[in-house]
Amino acid sequence: MNILQINSSIRAENAYSSRLADNLVAGLRRQTPAAQLVVRDLAKTPHPFLDETALIALSTPAEQRTPEQAQRVALDDALIAEIQHADIVVLTAPMYNFGIPAQLKAWIDAIARAKVTFQYTENGLEGLLKNKQVYVIQTAGGKHSGTETDSQSTYLRTVLGFLGMTDVTFIYAEGLAMGGDAEQLALQAAATQIAALAA
Ligand SMILES: Cc1cc2nc3c(=O)[nH]c(=O)nc-3n(C[C@H](O)[C@H](O)[C@H](O)COP(=O)(O)O)c2cc1C
Description:
- The two termini are 17 Å apart.
- The chain is α/β, with parallel strands linked by helices.
- It has six helices and seven strands; from the N terminus they run βαβααβαβββαβα.
- The protein binds flavin mononucleotide.
- It catalyses: 2 a quinone + NADH + H(+) = 2 a 1,4-benzosemiquinone + NAD(+); N,N-dimethyl-1,4-phenylenediamine + anthranilate + 2 NAD(+) = 2-(4-dimethylaminophenyl)diazenylbenzoate + 2 NADH + 2 H(+).
């Protein structure tokens, strides 16, 4: 059993999403003590954005790549290998300006690779990252779930499904900046859901 935890908050300390992810992972590891854990922090170790240089490197046959191109492709290869080996993926998605963190988008751009993590066949699209249980922890200052401003979950469900990850559970901690007891209630609700998932 391999667990991959992807932290994407820009806050190195005290990020709610990373803390909730830690709690979920701790619960999952209590269930399966032999589980191996890989934590990738996309803010501490930012992945380069997909740009034209990367696109050209990726579309150049491996044996014709320059050392720089090979190096760039290797960075994406490492992320792909991590997700291929994971049985459980714990993804954090804090809301920034009504979307996922740019760092998380860079990770998605890295792992979405034709003929490796998805392919088109005569029967249509096939996602190749199969048989994974995915948990997405969404944090937000306001409240968005169930409304059209929750574009994060729609996007993540679509792109993860495209890659073959169809078993996705969302855990929300919202209203964290709304004052009063909103923060406490949101964290409590998320903790209760996490405790049930890891029971
Ligand atoms: C740059 C920035 C942009 C934000 N944009 C939004 C937003 O569009 N909607 C919202 O509800 N909260 C927004 N927030 C609040 C965060 O979602 C909230 O602080 C959340 O706790 C961040 O997750 P973290 O604690 O895991 O870092 C924003 C926060 C920051 C720092």
